[in-house]
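hey so i finally got around to running the thing on that chain from the lab meeting. sorry it took forever, my laptop kept dying and i had to restart like 3 times. anyway pasting the input first so we r on the same page abt which one it is
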Amino acid sequence: MLGRPPHCLEDLTFEEADELIRAGAWALLPVGATQAHGPHLPISTDTVVAITAAQRASVLLAQRKTVALVLPALPYSVSEHAAGFAGTIGVGADALTAMVADVISGTARAGFLGVVVCTVRFEAQHIAALGRAVSEARANGIKAMLPDASVVDRGDERVSDACWAGRFETSLVRAGRPFLVREDVAFELSPRPAAHGESFREAAGPRGYLGDPAGATLDEGDAHYRAVAQLYADAVEGLKS
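ok and heres what got predicted. didnt touch it at all, straight out
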């Protein structure tokens, strides 16, 4: 007997997965990255956020009587900005496109009705690579979508483009996996706005962050997740038509 959603594919047996897929399941594919996020957030930040958002979308969809399984996350992406910081492991844009395109094709062969790619990263090369993968899938007749999570309100960080391990991402990790936030460090960090014309390394400084981590709250993170999860859930509903 399956428990309550979210249903994560990697945690199911093949018989449980078969039951859900036969019922008409959609796939949510979290795509993150393995890269530095300041002195207070884990290298897995982008992946943690993508997984949490996808899981919350799965719950929303279940409330609408729509089955959506969260696929195992892809933890690597283009990571040019953070390349100079320890622990960052990036892949080329073409490799990312090929991997995501193949995974989407795999979901179709496995019997899923379609797939929504879930990411809360805004690096241009990352988004472009994912967009190409989704376009390739759609050209092959597969229902796929990459919702634009950048529409979610990030307050001053969106306006200034100071959104790297700042208030937005710190609030999301705090709301998703609070034990991963180095709270003693986060509360001591001063706001660091981005300056026009600076490289990422110049702007982020030696500690590798932008924005105001100390201002982040759990409630704010929950609000962001509600908005992103709604975006993903609506994307699945859109693919049905």
